[in-house]
């Protein structure tokens, strides 16, 4: 009789490449795992029918577990009701990314509920995670999209986002991409003098009047890593508040090309003190008053995103979306504004784990290493800016396994190739599963092919316990296509 492992690998099928990529059509490989204590069975099917919109998620405060990945009484790590070890058996290869679709719905519900009573746009920051099925789910829930490149704009349109709920950010938007933005009808943030000039050129080239927001640096210290701080006076983003009048005078001179509809600020990322958002909002409303006094009809206040999460899994009491919105609610209502927020990390980070297999364990001098098949190529945050992400083993350790302090490293030929340092873990067996938590944001979207480590597949767990492939793993044939037709 074939083993469960053999059965899973033989039955897991991939989406039909002949299917259209229309936003309302889906093709997916589905693997269903029944409840524990039953014999493992696996089914595979391909769905091409138009899916109905996801059910509205329950309120985030209604007994929702703090994390969709949690340790069961049997000692195994679960994603919702599915053992991660079973997902490893079914996956096409390791490493891979594994998401909880219900957690995405719960995270959105927390923002939706917090914004009750306000006119608002939840603009999902596509840079955090640009997986197309993820984008489609968020669009179906009512999200807009925050974009920082022309291709992100094209992807958002492909995913079916309403352009009137999309914002095009960035400090180096090209004329070509601004023309696409003008044609599409999205909001565009003015980031600099030359950016304003290019927006005007794009408007003239397309014959469209562009709705714009001024991105103003409020010079508020977000108290985060300097690489993710964006709202201080030395940032490469936004305009200096001292130059506000110059921009207002310039905008007045282009009444047929642009319409100023709002102001925008973005302080940074991984922010854990919501008072910082209130401080920025107070400053921004002073600018709203100043701008309105000059005849502009401002409708929108965009306070950006940046809410942090519990990467350390210490049960730290961190601000929720409700805490964030409550700090600015009365300010927004007092000025009769529509609030735009730009969550990325807080919507998607904790929905996903990066799943690896242990290649082996070694020691050099006083340093112990767990070597896994994943690396900085698939998940660069720890190597790029020393980010901490919680790491644990998928299955209970072998009886008698000695606990030790390890660096978790990959096979890439760089000393910077690590996923975590100085982690206390039981010594794992070869082939054991190991996960890096909170990998939904700025992980796969920043993945590379360094050392020709081709980007991994992605899956999510549905509410019914099925596992659906939502991205193919790249193959060497995909890489070789970049050279088709070139001189030998």
Automatic annotation (TrEMBL):
PROSITE patterns: ODR_DC_2_1, ODR_DC_2_2. Pathway: Amino-acid biosynthesis; L-lysine biosynthesis via DAP pathway; L-lysine from DL-2,6-diaminopimelate: step 1/1. Its EC number is 4.1.1.20. CDD domains: PLPDE_III_DapDC. GO terms for biological process: lysine biosynthetic process via diaminopimelate. InterPro entries: Ala_racemase/Decarboxylase_C, DAP_deCOOHase_LysA, De-COase2_C, De-COase2_CS, De-COase2_N, De-COase2_pyr-phos_BS, Orn/DAP/Arg_de-COase, PLP-binding_barrel. It catalyses: meso-2,6-diaminopimelate + H(+) = L-lysine + CO2. The keyword Manganese does not apply. It comes from the Eukaryota. Residues 1-31, 42-61 are annotated as: Disordered. This is diaminopimelate decarboxylase. It comes from Zea mays. The gene is LOC100273126.
